[in-house]
């Protein structure tokens, strides 16, 4: 094989590798929801990272108990996650649904909750999980 | 007697030949008559008895053909069974393709075809033919496939970064186990059609392993197979083995699921919104003692 043909073959292979392939493997980012709870004194507890499933039929269910004062239930599948509260005032109004697509982009939210014992907490939600 | 016979032969024999035969007959007659009348009568009686027996046997056989079938002469090819119908142990290995239909759950877009692709099954049947027509036994097998046609999952499973290494693997394995019964329509024929019904459980495991993101997910879905209806036909060879074709419709619904993400179980429990699904399949089977 002549030097010219070898060069041409290398060029074609290089173009195939660089041109046909995408920049990343495996589609969009994995949807993750980071949760934490802070009291009025600023002490942060109950830091969790919930990774949403990718596969159809995959589910996630996490129950978080916050110092015996109230609890949070996080249920999700590959396209939606629902956060509900127990032991807090106006629990039905505080229930929150977050789309997986939202979690793949930048998302953050803080929710003030008052327990049935009249104690105050701040629940912080954010997309992604800190390593 | 001899003269009568010679007269009959004279109709087609030439005259010199007729004379020679008549002379030889007279010589034989004189030799036979020489030992005495008693011996001649004994020989005649023996010959008559033999002729009578032959005539009687011929008439009996002509009137009772069943006796002849079991005895001296075999039945014709189309009347005779191809191979004796078997009873007792029977086994089969089958493979082919099966395709998903219906819904995996009542969730929007969660069809069986969205979750799983077509699969390549390998199934082992074992049981007993309690009668030549009825087979009772069990089945166990597995099937291999890949992800279904859901766009989101296909995107995740598609390794298109062009680094010429396979960083992502997506696979589906199904395991099934159950009991079944078959009714064989022509158990002694060369081509034996049959119908079957079975019920059991099926576990479908789907996995996604992305080494670049260090993300692993596995879902296990358990379904109750309400009805596994089979149609098939076996070609029975004389060697104790058979080859066949089969088609199958397996109706079930998922009742339990388990999800593991990065090695941790994130959900274990019943399926809240079950739905009916069907696996439609067809293929070949190898039958032992068909």
Task: Detail the topology: elements first, then pairings.
The complex is a heterodimer of chains A (131) and B (290).
Chain A: H1 3-20, E1 32-39, E2 44-51, E3 60-66, E4 70-76, E5 80-86, H2 91-94, E6 96-99, H3 100-104, E7 108-114, E8 120-127
Antiparallel strand pairs in A: 1-2, 1-8, 3-4, 4-5, 5-6, 7-8
Chain B: H1 2-10, H2 15-33, H3 37-63, H4 65-70, E1 88-102, H5 112-115, E2 116-129, E3 134-147, H6 151-157, E4 168-184, E5 191-210, E6 215-236, E7 241-261, E8 264-270, E9 276-288
Antiparallel strand pairs in B: 1-2, 1-9, 2-3, 3-4, 4-5, 5-6, 6-7, 7-8, 7-9
Helix pairs in contact in B: 1-2
Distance between the termini of chain B: 64 Å
Q: What fold name goes in the CATH topology slot of the largest domain in chain B? A: Porin
| CATH second-level architecture of the largest domain in chain B | Beta Barrel
- Average pLDDT figure of chain B: 80
The radius of gyration over CA of chain B amounts to: 39 Å
């Amino acid at each position: 094989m002549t030097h010219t043909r070898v060069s041409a073959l290398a060029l074609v292979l290089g173009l195939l590798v660089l041109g046909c392939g995408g920049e990343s493997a495996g589609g969009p980012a994995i949807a993750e929801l980071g949760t934490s709870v802070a009291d009025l004194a600023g002490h942060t507890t109950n830091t969790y990272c919930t990774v949403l499933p990718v596969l159809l039929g995959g589910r996630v269910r996490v129950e978080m108990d916050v110092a015996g004062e109230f609890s949070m239930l996080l249920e999700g599948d590959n396209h939606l996650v629902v956060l509900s509260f127990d032991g807090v005032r106006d629990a039905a109004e505080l229930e929150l649904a977050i789309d997986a697509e939202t979690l793949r982009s930048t998302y953050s939210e803080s929710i003030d909750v008052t327990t049935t014992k009249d104690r105050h907490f701040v629940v912080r939600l954010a997309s992604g999980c800190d390593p | 007697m001899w003269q009568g016979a010679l007269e009959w032969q004279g109709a087609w024999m030439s005259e010199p030949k007729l004379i020679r035969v008549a002379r030889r007959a007279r010589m034989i007659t004189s030799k036979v008559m020489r030992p005495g009348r008693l011996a001649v009568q004994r020989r005649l009686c023996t010959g008559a008895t033999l002729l009578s027996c032959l005539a009687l046997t011929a008439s009996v056989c002509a009137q009772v053909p069943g006796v002849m079938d079991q005895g001296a002469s075999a039945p014709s090819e189309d009347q005779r069974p191809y191979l004796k119908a078997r009873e007792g142990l029977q086994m089969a290995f089958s493979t082919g393709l099966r395709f998903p239909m219906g819904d995996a759950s009542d969730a929007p877009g969660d069809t069986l075809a969205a979750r799983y692709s077509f699969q390549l099954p390998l199934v082992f049947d074992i049981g007993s033919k309690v009668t030549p027509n009825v087979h009772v036994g069990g089945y166990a097998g597995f099937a291999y496939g890949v992800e279904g046609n859901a766009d989101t999952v296909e995107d995740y499973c598609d390794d298109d970064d062009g680094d010429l290494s396979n960083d992502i693997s997506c696979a589906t394995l199904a395991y099934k186990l159950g009991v079944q019964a078959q009714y064989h329509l022509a158990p002694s024929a060369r081509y034996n059609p049959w119908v079957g019904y079975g019920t059991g459980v099926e576990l479908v495991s789907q996995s996604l392993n992305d080494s670049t993101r260090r993300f692993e997910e596995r879902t296990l879905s358990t379904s109750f197979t309400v009805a596994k209806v089979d149609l098939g036909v076996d070609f029975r060879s004389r060697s104790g083995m058979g080859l066949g074709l089969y088609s199958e419709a397996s109706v079930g619904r998922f009742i339990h699921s388990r999800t593991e993400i990065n090695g941790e179980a994130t959900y274990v429990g019943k399926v809240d919104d079950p739905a009916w699904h069907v696996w439609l399949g067809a293929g070949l089977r190898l039958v032992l003692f068909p």
